[in-house]
Structure formats: structure tokens, C-alpha cells
Design brief:
alpha/beta, seven-stranded parallel sheet, two-stranded parallel ribbon, 11 strands
Length: 284
């Protein structure tokens, strides 16, 4: 438990993993500061305003925090530029443990949040970097895939027949809670996957079976995917995302790990189980 007067600060507490981390911590009796740009209340927590683009919001969010769950600024080209000064401020303010959400596709020292990953161990003696594979909720939430599924019954990627160890956001949150609360921090990075590596064609087949709608995987070239993404995000970011698809096609994400089972004591959920659980969102 937190010591009297201390909190766990969850940045991005209204997001896909942040909301789940907040809920799981609160359910275990931990005192949580739920940080978001609009300080939206999250059940069982204390809301606080936090905005990566407004450094004046940092001090209030950090007040009383002894550990922090970090969601990088969404879509930032250089997240380290804002995150590293914040983490230095956090250390001075009394934060002793930091758990960073990164990606299985980005190693320490790699692009974007990989620079924060590389620096984390030099800032805190207690730390972890979560490197989950692609979220199962990309097909049921507000991701582009979920929107095209609902609107057109299609999934567009440049992944070919490449496979991904898709993982449930609830399982990512469970690993995050372990990393935040156990007496000994992991002090390493943790690659988090579901129990199966599936192609996007496999995903389309499962979604078709679960929803009763025909869902099709539309295979694009790297260039087609890059240009499609560039309609909604900066060109450099679109190229990086399309490059991740190409890496999947080459087999970079064709793996599974025992991280969820080893740290939480239960197996990770299958994609079919999550699709069944969230099928109403696939139809709305």
C-alpha cells in the first residue's frame, strides 16, 4: 500500500490502459491520482489536471506521489523532449518508482518513446517498461481499425500474412499494477502478448464468426498504407506506423510471451474471448 499521504499518479487515467490501471489499483485499496487534461473523475481515485503540453500542470499532479504510471503524449514526434524534464521533476518531488508504457516494436534507445525507455533506469532505482504487443481493443474501441470495421466491415493494413501476439488491455493493466505495487520493482522491460499470434486475416475471421457480419482484411502496400494514414496524422508519423506494418509482414511480432501468466498468475485472454466480451461495441 501507499504510505500515509502518498499516491500513485496515473497519467492518461481516462485512456485505454490508464483507466484500467486506475480501476485495478483503486479496487485493491491503493490511493490514486487520476491525471488527465480535463481532470475527469475516475471511480475510486482523486482527479487531477495534467497536460504534457502545459508544464505548469506538473507540480500539482506530482504532489504527494511516490510512484507514477506513464502514458507518453499521443502522437508526439519527440516524446523525450517533454517527458524527460517531467521525470527529473518527478524524482525531485519524491517519486521513487516509474512504470512506462512503450511498445513491443520499440526497443530501448529506439525512436520516440525508446529514448525515454533508455533513460528511465538512470532516473529511478525502481522502474519498469511495459512493451505490449498490439491491443485487442484496436478492433473494438476508437482506433481506425474499429471505425472501419463498424462503418465498412474492413480492416486495412500492410501486414500481409504476418502475425501479431495481440493482447487485451486488461492484461496490460494487470501487469502494470504488478509493476507498480510489488515490493520489488521489475527493473527491466516486459514484452506483453496474448496467448496466440494471429494474422489480421485470422482476426477478420474471428470477428466475422463472433459478430455475424462479414469482416474483410484489405491488404495494402507500404506506400498505400502510409498515404492512407497521412490523411489523419503527420506524414512522418504515418511513415513510422506503416513501417511497423511492414515489420509485422516480415515477422517482427510473430511471438508470444509468458509475462501475463508469470506476473499475474493467470493466462492472458484470447482474442476470441475479448471479441465475445466486447461484441456490442463492434456493432455500434
Amino acid at each position: 500500500m501507499n504510505k500515509p499521504g502518498e499516491f500513485t499518479l496515473v497519467i492518461g487515467a481516462t485512456g485505454t490502459t490508464g483507466s484500467r490501471v486506475t480501476a485495478q489499483l483503486a479496487a485493491r485499496g491503493w490511493r490514486v491520482k487520476a491525471a488527465s487534461r480535463r481532470a475527469i473523475p475516475v471511480d475510486g481515485s482523486c482527479p487531477v489536471r495534467f497536460d504534457w503540453d502545459d508544464p505548469t500542470s506538473f507540480a500539482t499532479a506530482l504532489e504527494g506521489a511516490d510512484r507514477v504510471y506513464l502514458i507518453p503524449p499521443l502522437g508526439a514526434r519527440d516524446p523525450a523532449a517533454v517527458m524527460l524534464p517531467f521525470l527529473q521533476q518527478a524524482r525531485v518531488a519524491g517519486v521513487r518508482r516509474a512504470v512506462l508504457l512503450s511498445s513491443s516494436a520499440i526497443p530501448a534507445g529506439g525512436p520516440a518513446v525508446g529514448q525515454v525507455h533508455q533513460a528511465l533506469s538512470g532516473l529511478f532505482s525502481q522502474w519498469a517498461v511495459l512493451r505490449p504487443s498490439w491491443f485487442m481493443q484496436n478492433f473494438t474501441g476508437n482506433h481506425t481499425h474499429a471505425r472501419t470495421i463498424r462503418a465498412h466491415g474492413t480492416i486495412h493494413t500492410a501486414t500481409g500474412e504476418g502475425r501479431v501476439g495481440f493482447v487485451d488491455a486488461d492484461d496490460i493493466a494487470a501487469v502494470a499494477v504488478h509493476a507498480l505495487t510489488k515490493a520489488q520493482a521489475p527493473n527491466t522491460d516486459l514484452i506483453i502478448t496474448g496467448p496466440q499470434a494471429l494474422s489480421y486475416g485470422d482476426v477478420a475471421t474471428i470477428l466475422t464468426q463472433v459478430t455475424g457480419r462479414t469482416i474483410t482484411h484489405c491488404q495494402l502496400t507500404y506506400e498505400q498504407m502510409r498515404d492512407r494514414l497521412a490523411a489523419d496524422v503527420p506524414a512522418e508519423f504515418a511513415a513510422m506506423l506503416a513501417g511497423m506494418d511492414h515489420a509485422i509482414a516480415e515477422g517482427a511480432e510473430n511471438r508470444t510471451t509468458d509475462t501475463v501468466q508469470r506476473l499475474t498468475g493467470r493466462p492472458p485472454r484470447t482474442f476470441r474471448a475479448v471479441a465475445e466480451r466486447e461484441k456490442d461495441r463492434l456493432r455500434s
